[in-house]
Amino acid sequence: MLAESLTEIQLEATILKEFVRSLDERLVETYCV
Predict the structure, then answer these.
(1) What's the pTM value of the predicted model, to 2 decimals?
(2) DSSP secondary structure letters along 1-33
């Protein structure tokens, strides 16, 4: 059960990182152009 919740946390962290990365790229494109 603990392993399952840890896997879920890691999955959510990965999704969050991808979201933040895409958001950063969008902000860079917006402000650097």
Answers:
(1) 0.62
(2) -HHHHHHHHHHHHHHHHHHHHHHHHHHHHHHH-
Residue type, 20: V
The 3-state DSSP class for residue 33 equals: coil
Amino acid at 3: A
Q: For residue 5, report the phi and psi dihedrals to the nearest 5 degrees.
A: -70, -35
Residue 32 confidence (pLDDT): 79
Q: Which amino acid is at 11?
A: L
Q: Which two tokens stand for residue 14?
A: 């990965």
For 13-29, the pLDDT digits (tens) are: 999 999 999 999 999 88
